Amino acid sequence: MDYFKKILGFAKPYKRYAYLNIFFNILYALFGTLSFVALVPVLKVIFGDKKEVYTKPVYEGLGSLKDYTQDYLNYELSTLITTYGSFKVLMLMVGIIISLFLLKNISNYMAMYYITFLRNGVLKDIRNAMYNKVVALPLSFYSEKRKGDTISKISADVEEVRNSLLSVLEMIVREPLTILFSLIAMFVFSMKLTLFVFVFIPISGFLISKIGKSLKKKSVKVQQEQGIFLSILEETMSGLRIIKAFNAEDAFQKKFEASNERYYRFSNSVLNRQNLASPMSELMGIIVIGILLVYGGYLVFIDDSMEASFFIGYITLAYNILTPAKGISKASYSLKRGNGAAERILELLNTENPIKDAPDAIVKNSFEKEIRINNISFKYENDYVLKNFSATIPKGKTIALVGQSGSGKSTIANLITRFYDIDEGSIEIDNINIKQITKHSLHSLMGVVSQDSILFNDTVANNIKLGKPDATDDEILEAAKIANAYEFIKDLPNGFDTNVGDAGGKLSGGQKQRLSIARAVLKNPPIMILDEATSALDTESEKLVQKALENMMLNRTSVVIAHRLSTIQNADQIIVMQKGEIVEQGTHNELLNLKGTYRKLVEMQSFE
């Protein structure tokens, strides 16, 4: 229930719909009870089961409530039948019953109408909050968690909350009030018979509680397993080319089927326990109805303390309790299932973001002097991938980072952009620690072209203007020309309005990379980070892009991470890295003259 209460915190903006829902649910329960109570005079008229009473009875207190009710009803019926006749009175009673049922169903519709806004509003806000958290969490979070599990929380777990927890909102007032109003009417009809019903409710609740005790635990297993097979599905779709190339279809099929089989078993266990709720409560109800029939028959035929029409009305009221009782027992199971889903949702929402703005963080809109990296060290897990790294990047200069794979080059880019926080040392922009700059303004100062050309399933134009949504068509065109992308864009079926497909699947590697460069050009930031930006290009595409990169880096501060050394010969400073440490630094010619690590790297590659 704790998680359910926290999820209900999302309902605060929609509380007016909750109040309207409660109001109409009260009317629903009231009219529903009255519609069954109204059957009693109909039965009296049809069967002639009434005493001739022409003197209005006097109420003498709670102890005589049942006798007063019977006598008053007989008095009213006797008077009406004498005046209008039995058939007209019967028509009147039937009209009243139909009106009561009409009002009951109108109230039900209005209650459902208003709860819809509350339910869907809560779901909308939960999804928005979860998506905001997904975007806000650092990259390190996703290197430790399965993507499919996060997707499962946003999709399947939110749906479970809708089907379980929020469905309870529909009955949380209506069903208990229906039972309450029915019990009040039954108490008026017969205090003795009603005692049996009070015995039934706690026994039923106890049995249902015992059955559903482990339901939450099993439900969490279902949702966790769903996250696993969604992860397998996501990996399969992302790596389908490799799976097919290595004939690994059967291995992934078995992996998916094993997870799906576990999901199947867990789901069966949960649903079979949940399915016990309805028959269990109905069986308990029928047992009580049977006892009521026997005892009530005694009161009517032997004790003669209860009229037959009142007894039949009483039984209909008792049976009227069964449906909401079944609903409440189902709701208790739903709460346990939904509580598991709510726990997983809140686990994500409550995840602490280790990379956040300092309370006194400033907004920095310009870059004036230099980037200074002061003796930083960093580790992803246990081993340091960067050790005592220092560098200064003056405004307008280009610094290049080279070295073998795993030497820590890309980590520098991740730390400057503050995708990760450093363990030791500091990074400063214009003598301000980047931890004292808001993340939004820090990222506004930078443009990134990564090794992986990340495009989105949208048009060419929308991919280019990602960092500048209000860009004009002329600005987009100019950026595409600078990136040497216009030459292939103009040949696409719809030019800039052509959809690039999922992850840019309709374009070649070189075309995707040039769009990524155009995106960075259009943003026009003072600091540019190129993380092996030409590694995905063939020789011809590299020549097309290299000139564009050089033009883009003019009068701009650039950090270039390069595998192809031909792309960084004109850098103002080249830093050679090995196992997270600087082994050499200088210009291209200075490093060649050292005849050290850089010279060896150059000799391994052919310059044109």
TrEMBL record:
Residue ranges annotated for the ABC transporter domain, each copy included: 371-604
Gene3D superfamilies: ABC transporter type 1, transmembrane domain, P-loop containing nucleotide triphosphate hydrolases
Molecular function terms from GO: ABC-type oligopeptide transporter activity; ATP binding; ATP hydrolysis activity
Cell compartment(s), UniProt: Cell membrane
Domain ABC transmembrane type-1 positions: 72-337
GO cellular component, one term: plasma membrane
Keywords: ATP-binding, Membrane, Nucleotide-binding, Transmembrane, Transmembrane helix, Transport
Domain of life per record: Bacteria
Transmembrane segments: 20-47, 81-103, 283-302, 308-328
One Pfam family linked to the record: ABC_tran
Entry protein name: ABC-type multidrug transport system, ATPase and permease component
